[in-house]
Amino acid sequence: MDLTGRQIVLGVTGGIAAYKSADLVSRLRHLGAGVHVIMTRNAAEFVSPLTFQTLSANQTVTDTFQAPEYWNVEHVALAKLADVFVIAPATANILAKMAHGIADDMLSTTVLATKAPILVAPAMNTGMWTAEATRANMRILAERGVHVIGPGNGLLACGDSGDGRMSEPAEIVEAIGSILTARRDLEGLKVLITAGATRERLDPVRYLTNDSSGKMGFALAEAARDRGAEVTLVKGSTTAAVPAGVRIVPIESTEDLLAAMQKEAPEQDIIIQAAAPADYRARETAPEKIKKKAGEDLILQLVETPDVAREIGRNKRKGQILIGFAAETEKLKENAVRKLDRKNLDMIVANDVTLPGAGFGTDTNIASLITREGTEDRPLQSKRALAEDILDRAVLMRRAQG
After folding, report:
1. Can you list the domains of the chain with their CATH numbers?
2. Less CB within 10 Å around the terminal CB: N or C of the chain?
């Protein structure tokens, strides 16, 4: 990635993740970008402004009334200078200010004045991230076209575990690059993506499922959204943060998935099935919790669930692009090619989930893009990068169909 000559305005707010922003500045500078940092007063309690000034080789702005580096009203000058405006970490406080047009410090004033694309990398306690007030603010920002990366899931500084970790600097740099080179080649198209695992109930408290996190499907949804598509996301059980700016259709079981797909699929231009539906369900779901009986084994009778991709493939309309996924542990390409034909797909994305960096729950993937014309092997890369590759192929296949 070459960002030579690009000007990035970086807002740093008051959270422990502010230390990661120093690495972000360093990475952007190494790619040739000019970086201009605005810090809130609380951010300066975590990292010294001098750190950012040294790394960026530009004055770090912390006060609306400090002497300007630019011979202009500084918040206007920086707002106009930005090719992209990034806030990392973005606390619940700055997100609320942005959603409601509050401009009471240098950062909130400048971001309100900018016409540049805005990218926020939320970082906060899980309870704050999932609070209805924050969710409402994120919906407002999504409607205005604000780009969002993360937050990730894991152990937080407060000791809790869950959604709220700021995305890693490398991921944020990649997102910045995507924004600066944004293509709108999916404008006017409807894209349907499935993500996550299904749950097949055994009783009111137990179910059969798998380890799918939804990260691959979410990366596809975000990439399609950023390329101008009208995105519908059919979402099962997931552990990753749900992307903003897309229409969500929640499902639980494979039967639910089939019903949702049969309803949504006919109107779609591109369908990418990245969900991991269960292959089997219990023949009967117990109405009450199944009790343990000492000394007795529990025998479950399982029956096949519907093959959702195959059902959608049977009703594929002319001009529609269907893409599936094959998560395998052996005979990767052989199994994937069989699925390609059986399910009437245009392309199948095959990955060996036993490989390091390619399994469920990771932020990276290793995949083969298989069509009837051949196979393109993709190296270890982020799921967002793989999502862009998949959409590139989908666009080419649509053009080839005329």
Report:
1. 7-180 (3.40.50.1950), 190-400 (3.40.50.10300)
2. C
